[in-house]
Amino acid sequence: MDTTQKSLRVEQPFGKVSLQFLSRYWIFIALVVLIVAFSLLSDSFLSKINLLNILRQVSIIGICAVGMTMVILTGGIDLSVGSMIGVSGMACALMLQAGIPPVLAVFLTLVMGLGFGGITGLLINKIHIPPLIATLGLMTALRGVAYILNGGLPIYGIPESVKFLGQGWVFGIPFPVILMIAVFVLGYVLLNKTAFGRHLYGTGGNEEASRLSGVNVEKLKTKVYLLAFFLSTFAGIVLMARVNSGQPRGGTGYEMDIITAVVLGGVSIMGGSGRLMGVIAGVMIMGVLSNGMILLNIDEYVQWVVKGLVLLVAVGLDQLSNHKSEQ
Amino acid sequence: MSILCLKSVVKEYPGVQALAGVSFELEAGEVHAIMGENGAGKSTLIKTVTGAIKPTRGYVVYQGQTLPSGDPRAIIDLGISAIYQELSLFPELTVAENIFYGNETYKGLFLDKAKMNENALSLLKSLGTDIKPEVQVKTLSIGFQQLVELAKAVSKQCKLLIMDEPTAPLTNQEVKYMYEAVRRLQKQGVTIIYVSHRLNEVFDLCDRVTILRDGHYIETLDIDKVTEDELIRLMVGRTITNEYPKRTHELGDDYLSVRSLNSGLVKDVSFSLKKGEILGLAGLVGAGRTEIARLIFGADPLKSGEITIDGVTKLINSPHDAIAAGIGLLPEDRKTQGALLTMSISDNVSYSSLDRFSSKGILQPKLERASTQEFVSKLNVKTPSIDQLVGNLSGGNQQKVVLAKWLLNDCSVLIFDEPTRGIDVGAKSEIYELMRQITQRGVSVIMISSEMPELLGMSDRVLVVHDGSIVKELHPEEYSQETVLKYASGF
Ligand SMILES: Nc1ncnc2c1ncn2[C@@H]1O[C@H](COP(=O)(O)OP(=O)(O)OP(=O)(O)O)[C@@H](O)[C@H]1O
Ligand SMILES: [Mg+2]
Questions:
Q1: CATH code for the domain defined by B254-488
Q2: Contact: A201, B343; criterion CB under 8 Å
């Protein structure tokens, strides 16, 4: 046995190693290049305050990206994440305005998020609506709800204690950033250190084989949507706390940034492969890109073009590398 | 006259040398077997010829001209076609649509369906089958699907046809159709490369055989100048006894009983399985053996019936329930049902037993990897490490990984559906040995196999299935291929 294993090993030509290295770490390299480029182009970019600002700005999409990663790993997608952020901000603000104690209001909002996650899980796993369509429907419906909740108007008057979630600082770091890091750590442990995570990868790679290996696939995928919706609801509350109000438009278009970040991070849109480490870099790239473009006074419409192209490039690279490795 | 000539072909993958400088020649008009252990490099060699992969070094000469490497389209146009180890048909399309896929006939702007059906029909007839071109491929048995693959390859006017384990999923009866088709093609002047682990086929069909071992070319021999034992020795590098290990333990009491199982195809199936027993299910393809297995495992919904284990009735609605009750199933199709190709060997092997390797919900990699490494070594999976992706393994080695998954699980009843499909002679005998070992420990086994010698050699008892029902129970003293066939055909 030992001898056959040894005889199988061959020397790696240098070129191949560096190519492999590149395909694995290009996202980190791209992040560094982007940071260097913006710091050359703009004086204020590399200041401590701006960097913390970027981190604070990405914390919302960062929190959601963890849920989205899990959803995409199973071969699904969640387009309703942005609307969920909006609805949860509005719902929570409404409850706070009505005088419900903050802890209870936050708790009830999270329960509501879980409820929508459960409904999504049901639509996808029991009624077998494809995730793209199920969450597209929810995206529109939930946005409608966000507007209906207060007749299309924002809700102000968030108590100080809740504001801390979005505006507080701990040890010189914005609190939302700490929340994002905590969510990433939790996601990392779930994905890499538990049976749940392993089964997520397996189910995304080959659902039938996974089922025949004894995984309760429907239950697993329902859990994933519960988790994703829980996180987007949580992110919605943090956003509300940050902007001091429930905004019916809150989270509009976030699904685009979140999905791009996840795919940029190397999670295959077909499901089954991708690492959370890459997603962190993907999230940072999205943050650096928006922030840098704003600092450079780049027109908002041009920013859209850039972000759209980034998504296409990310997916294109993923597909090309899949195709290449078959040769 | 040589039609194809490989010149020092090398193919390297990260950490693996799949081909280590292979050179040999193919005579025009011969049926040429390529044999070797799992992972020896047979499929890789074939893929370099068809252009599916580019060799790292070396080249292939075909009819005096160097083949454009890595350009499958151009190579097909030169008259080289292949049937790969895994079927690549579109199940929803018709037979004719599959045969002419990418090669359609047009009438003006539109597809000429009538013409294509007509051409397909004459093609299928020339291969000696009466498959209808208008039916959807998914309605055909695997055996007939394989013949459609063959027709598809032949439709491209090929002069060189390459077949990678074409008979692995077929039953004896279907193999005969394949034989017939191959012989007809040879008569029409087609040269054929034939990869198979079945020695008898190689002796029946082929003129010469080339042996590969660990990516190295070993020898090319005329088939009538070599014996089975010699061939095995050349492939494996050692001698192997062709005998099935005998049972040395006493059988226990009835352990698993199924009563009146019914579903679409399965009709009123009842039997029981003793502790430590290997029970064989014999039958033709489509007889319902796999369906019975899937019912017991909860993979398909049960219409009515009862399953008891050790006298206790178990409600089994899903594979999850079955495993909880201690029943495991090695499914018949490893690519779609067994292997998780995008995951590592280690992840695959431990996939059904993760609870055992978790402490307070957190996986313990050390424990997990020690166990998976043990089984990977036991089954002799050829790989540089247990972190290799299963999708990068050779077909036979993938099968070993799926097998290891179930051997590692603590099931007390294991159902093996075609456990040795695509597995080389050496590894086969190791698998037989392992099956005996687990039954000695008290595990009960249900075995489905289309290879009759193996089924009769390993089973303590055989149930013959015909048309969804059990028609006969056979005991070792009554075993013979003729008897089984007689009952399997419904007489
Ligand atoms: N894409 C790949 N990446 C890494 N290693 C590979 C890849 N494809 C094949 N190999 C390795 O190359 C070797 C030869 O594989 P190949 O599929 O040619 O074997 P084979 O002789 O066809 O075996 P089998 O009888 O099991 O089908 C194996 O060790 C396999 O693991
Ligand atoms: Mg092969």
A1: 3.40.50.300
A2: yes
